[in-house]
Amino acid sequence: MTVITPPETTIAPAIRTPRPTAFWRLKGFPLIPVLILVFIALVAIFADVLAPYDPTIGSLARRFRPPFWQEGGSMAYLLGTDHVGRDVLSRLIYGARVSMVVGITAVLVAGGIGTLLGILSGYLGGWADQVVMRLTDTWLALPALTFAIFLAAIVGPSELNIILILGLVYWTRYARVIRGEVLSLKQREFVRLAIVAGCSSRTIMWRHILPNVINSAVVLATLMLGVVIVTEASLSFLGVGVPPPKPAWGLMMADGKKGLLVGYWWLTVMPGLCIMLMVLSANLLGDWLRVKLDPQLRQL
Amino acid sequence: MKQYILRRIGYSLLSLFLLSLTIFLFVRVTGDPVALLTEPGASQEDIEAMHRQFGLDQPLWVQYWHFVASFITGDFGQSFYYRTPVLDLYFQRLPNSLLLAAVAMVLSLVIGIPSGILAAVRVDGFWDSAGKLFALLGLSLPQFWVGLVLILVFSVSLGWLPSSGSGTVWHLLMPAFTLGWYFAAAHMRLTRSSMLEVLGSEYIKLARLKGLPEALVIGKHALKNALIPVITLAGINLVVMINVAVIVETVFAWPGIGRLLYEGVTFRDFPVVQAVVVIGGSMIILVNLLIDILYALIDPRIRLES
Predict the structure, then answer these.
(1) Total domain count for chain A?
(2) Is residue B90 part of a domain?
(3) I need a labelling partner for B74 at 20 to 30 A (CA). Which of A28, A148, A221, B276 fits?
C-alpha cells in the first residue's frame, strides 16, 4: 500500500514578503544626532550637578583665561573664563538648559495652537477656514525673526515671554500643513462613516482626525526645534532674548563678539559649536522622521 | 483673467489689512502704547499730549483708522534716537540693504544653480552628496555663527578682509556670503528637484533620441524649463533678503535696514522697530502679488483655472 502524500508544492507558496524587521525600520537611523540630543538633554537636566562653578558669578581677577590646552589656561577652568571671569564650561552647561527648555516648550506652544487651528480650519471650512488661512498667509509674510524682535520689543524679554513669542510666530507653519492633511482626511471613508453614524463634529475632530495628524505634527515639531533654537539664539544675540544673568548660548556669543578681534576666540566658538551641534542634530533627526513617518511630508 | 487678477489684488489688500490690524492690536492690547511711543523720561505734558494725539479715549476702530491713515500717508513718526522722521531713516538705509541683497543673491545663484544641476545629473553621486551637505549646513547653521567664524578666519587669523563696516568691495564679501549661503541652499535644492522633473519628461527623451550631445540636452533644452521656478523663488527671495539681514548686518556692522532694526531695539526706539516690521511685511505681500500676476500673464493654465 502506498501512501500518497500530497506534493508539498500544492500548498501555494505565498510570495514571502520579508517582514519589516527592526533593522529595516531603523535603516538610516541618525544615531549620532540622537545621541547628541540625548546628551544635551541630560546635561540640561543635571546642570546643577555637572557645572563646576556658578554660571552667574565671576571674579574680575581671573577674566579671559584661555581653555586648558592653551598657554595660560588651567585645569581649573577647562574651557576658560569670560569678560567678567565666569567659567565658560559652567555657562555652557546651564545654557543647554535654557535652549532645551525654551526650544521644547516653544515648539509645543506653536504645535498646540497650529494643530488646533489647522484642524478647525480644515474640518469646519467656510468662515473659520477663511479667517485662519488669511491670517496664516499674512503672518507668514512677516520674516519670523523680524516679527519676533517686534514682539519682544513690545512685551519685553523674559523666559516666558520668549516662549510665547516663538509660539506665536511659528504656529502658522503647523496650521498650514495640518489643514492640508485634514482636507484629504475629510474625504476618507472612516470620516464619512462617522458623519453618517451621527458623530458630532467635536468627536470626529478629536477621535478621528487628531490621531491621524499627530504623525505630521511630530515630524514638524522635530524640524521646527532647530528653527526655534536658532531664533531663540538670534534673539539672545541681539539682546532681546532670555535676559541676563541667565546664560543663553546666543547671549554668550554676543558678549564674546567684542573679544573676537583680540584673540579671545573661545568665548564665541564654544557656544557657537553647541548651537550648531544641537540644531544640526535636530534637523537630521527631523529629516529621518519625515521620510519614515510621513511620506506626504517628503516634499517639504 | 481680469477676475483672477482682481481676486489676487483683493487677497493682498486683505493681507495688508490683517497685517496692520495685527500690529495695531499687539501694540495696543499688550500695554500702553504711549509708554512705547514716548521717550523714556518724557515729561507729563508730553505723555498727555501723546494720549490726545492717539485719541486713546476714542473707540478702538477710530484709533485703528488713525493708525492706518498715518501709515498710508507715509508718517511713521519720529525716531527718538536720531530725531528725524523714521521714513527718512529707512530710505537712507535702504540702498545699503539693496546692495547687500543683490550681491548675496548673485552669490547664491552662482553657487546654487550649477551645483543643483550637477546634483540632478549625477543623482546619488559625489556631487549630489556634497551638495546635500552644503544645503544642510546652509539651512541649519545660525547666521551669526557663520559670520563670526568667517571673521575669525579671514579677519583675525589671515587678516585678508575687514571685519566690519562698509565702503569697499572687500567689506561686502563676508556679509554677502553669510546671507547668501542659506539662500544658495534653497536655490540648490529647488534647481535639483526641478531639473530632475524636467529630465524625466518626454521632450528630453526625444532630444536624446535625436542624438543631441548630453551637454546640449541639459544645458539648453532642460535648463530653460528647469530654471523657471528657481527664478521665481529668487525674485521673492531678493525682497526677503532685504528684510531678514538683521543678524548679518549686526555681526558685520553693515548700515542697512537690519542694522536699523537692531539699533531700534537696542535704543528702545519703538517707532523705528514698528516701521521696519510694517514696511517689510507689506513689501513681501506686494511682491507675492506681483509674482502671481506675472505668472497669470505668462501661464495660460493659471488664467483659465479661475
Answers:
(1) 1
(2) no
(3) A148
Residue A2 covered by a domain: no
Contacts with A103 from chain B: Cβ below 8 Å = none
pTM above 0.95, yes or no: no
Cell of A217: 505634527
A20 part of a folded domain? no
**Is B300 found in the same domain as B251?**
no
Q: Is A284 on the interface with B (CB under 8 A)?
A: yes
B82 alpha-carbon distance from chain centroid: 25
Nearest to A146 among B15, B276, B288 (CB): B276
Between CA B157 and CA A269 the distance in angstroms is: 14
Query: Grid coordinates standing for A293?
Result: 513617518
Domain hosting A43: range is 30-55+71-293
Q: Total domain count for chain B?
A: 2
Q: Does B95 fall in a domain?
A: no
Residues B168 and B107 in one domain: yes
The pLDDT, as a whole number, for residue A1 is 44
A107: left (phi over 0), alpha (psi -120 to 50) or beta: alpha
Looking at the fold, whether B184 and B257 belong to one and the same domain comes out as yes
CA distance A164 to A154: 13
Name the residue among A139, A141, A238 with its Cβ closest to that of B250: A238
Residue B10 touches partner A, C-beta closer than 8 Å: no
Distance in Å from the first CA to the final CA of chain A:
70
**Nearest alpha carbon to residue B254 among B92, B100, B49:** B100
Length of chain A: 300
Chains A and B form CB pairs within 8 A to the count of 133
Q: Are B160 and B229 members of one domain?
A: yes
Interface pTM (ipTM) of the complex? 0.84
In terms of domains, do B71 and B176 share one? no
Min CA distance, A280 vs chain B (Å)?
6
Minimal CA separation from A135 to chain B, in Å: 7
The grid coordinates listed for B290 are 506681483
Residue A212's domain is classified under what CATH number?
1.10.3720.10
Nearest CA in chain A to B272: A150
Q: Are residues B9 and B49 in the same domain?
A: yes
Burial B166-193 (b: 16+ CB within 10 A, else e): beeeebbbbbbbbbbbbbbbbbbbbbbb
The cell for A235 is 534673539
Residues 231 through 250 of chain B touching chain A, CB cutoff 8 Å:
240, 243-244, 246-247, 250
A252-295 per-position pLDDT tens digit: 888 888 877 777 888 888 888 999 999 999 988 888 888 777 65
Residue A48 lies inside a defined structural domain of this protein? yes
Contact state of B152 with A260 under an 8 Å Cβ cutoff: yes
Q: Are A62 and A85 in contact (CB under 8 A)?
A: yes
Does residue A84 fall inside a structural domain? yes
**Maximum Cα interatomic distance, chain A, rounded to a whole number of Å:** 105
Which of B18, B151, B265 lies at the smallest CB-CB distance from A149?
B265
Same domain, B196 and B128: yes
A27 inside 8 A of chain B by CB: no
What whole-number distance in Å separates Cα of residue A11 and Cα of residue A13?
6
Put simply, the answer to whether B22 touches A138 (Cβ < 8 Å) is: yes
Q: Across the interface, do A269 and B152 touch by the CB < 8 Å criterion?
A: yes
Q: What is the pLDDT of residues A140-199, one digit of tens each?
A: 888 889 899 888 888 888 889 999 999 999 999 889 889 988 988 888 888 889 888 888
Place of cell 483655472: B305
**Assigned C-alpha cell, A193:** 462613516
